[in-house]
Amino acid sequence: MKKAIALYSGGMDSALAVQKMKSDYQIIGAFFNVGQPGVDYQLASARRLATWQDIHLEVFDLSSLKNNFLGLADKNQISMSVGNTINCPFGIFGLASTYAISRRANALVAGVHKDDLTVSQHAGQFLKNVAEDASKLHNIEFEMCLPFLNTSKADVIRYGIEINFPLGYTRSCSESNEHHCGSCDECKKRKIAFSTAGVNDPTQYAE
Ligand SMILES: [Zn+2]
Predict the structure, then answer these.
(1) pLDDT digits (tens, 9 = 90+) for 134-154
(2) pTM of the entire structure?
(3) Owning domain of residue 125
(4) How far is the centre of ligand 1, averaged over its atoms, from the C-alpha of 130 (Å)?
């Protein structure tokens, strides 16, 4: 069976991307701590999800990176992943690809979905190009596996409901509180997606 590294953020998109691809690949999960806000709760969720999915999760502690990024973007964002205002897909995706290739994995699985691309239309193609170039460079079979690239977040949720996935384990919030704050950008996107999907939102929001 082919091997893949899968990015976990603690959220539903990444965990459901793993669920969708786990019959095709032998998957190892990877969580990147780059000092993002709410990271402890995100990691706790990622670990709960990976355990439920029977996926081994590795944690990359790059938390000091935030010291190099804070103050360079609005709202204390650390621009290391797709979907941030300043989009830097080289960040986590570059590191994770390098790790995947070093482990002789054939793919990097990630939960990038259609709504993420509203920030940058080019992110999906960019990531696919990176994988294609890496394949040529190293003369190996390697691809970016983005099963939700043409799927909205609401449809990702519908898929989760359809397969009875524990969506309540997932964490979107970028605040450091036990419950989802309900008002940060990620919470807003989560609320809207559940409402658009027309299904019950299991999330406990502080407001
Ligand atoms: Zn929040």
Answers:
(1) 999 999 999 999 999 999 999
(2) 0.92
(3) 2-165
(4) 31
